Amino acid sequence: MAYWLFKTEAETFSWGMQKQRGAKGEPWSGVRNFAAAKHMKAMKKGDLGFFYHTGDEKQIVGIVDESDVLLHVYADETKFRDPVSTAMVTKLQKLDVTSAIEALLPVFDAGHVAIVMDADKFLGLITRIDLLNYLRRRVQ
Hints:
Helix content: 25-40%
Low-confidence stretches: none
Mean pLDDT: 76
CATH topology of the largest domain: ph1033 like fold
Radius of gyration: 16 Å
């Protein structure tokens, strides 16, 4: 699985603006950097993307991966027509890089995703699946 960061100015193209477009959404056509556009096109099923507001806000406002979508549509296939925002995880909780692995359990129990920080520096994120994979490898 690859991780992708979608950076945008909140005033120019915020997640809220994208959600207002409804189920149809809107193509992200303002990508001026050729390498960034190429990487976006290289995304594959199962990759994890997160939407980051730059500028004054400087925060991740949502994350979506394949498991979020599958859980969303599990009981009702018609939900495949719903906007991505309805399946996206917006419950994000910051943890310090020095936190113990046990600190992840209440985060996941609350249905959140852990954002790992070193003071104000973003280091990465940890999902429930990441923890399960880590523990699985540890006992093998």
